[in-house]
Specification:
There is one protein chain. This protein is mainly α. The chain is built from five helices and no strands. It has helices at residues 12-39, 45-52, 55-83, 86-89, 93-120. Helix 1 (12-39) packs across helix 3. The termini are far apart.
Length: 122
């Protein structure tokens, strides 16, 4: 039996909703960045720097970063709980699942802090 202790949300519906909302945010962000690159007349460091000097772009980037982390966490949690089971791996599956989730959580935290530092220069 899989419990909701290590997933992102409180229920499957909540996780599903987070996945869908984060996917829409990531699509919008991707289209924005690709559009900026393609429609920029003089694309280079100066225009890229000027773009990210704007508060709303940094905020949009932060929202996209947090959406990426939430989306990835829910997806990886689903895969881990589906494939690292006692039925497949025996009694060591629980320990392996906890270690895997801890490692992925640590990586997500480091990337989030690093991304915030890059965006806001903290």
């Amino acid at each position: 039996m899989v419990t909701a202790i290590t997933n992102f949300g409180r229920s499957g519906l909540y996780d599903w909703l987070i996945q869908r909302i984060s996917a829409v945010i990531l699509l919008a962000y991707t289209l924005f960045i690709v559009g900026f690159i393609f429609f920029s007349k003089d694309f280079g460091y100066v225009s890229w720097s000027a773009l990210f000097d704007q508060f709303w772009v940094r905020l949009f980037s932060l929202i996209a970063l947090l959406s990426t982390v939430a989306h990835a966490w829910i997806g990886l949690w689903s895969v881990i709980t589906d494939y690292l089971t006692n039925r497949m791996l025996g009694t060591k599956a629980t320990l392996l699942r906890i270690l895997t989730q801890t490692l992925l959580g640590a990586v997500a935290l480091v990337y989030t802090v690093w991304g915030i530092e890059i965006l806001w220069g903290i």
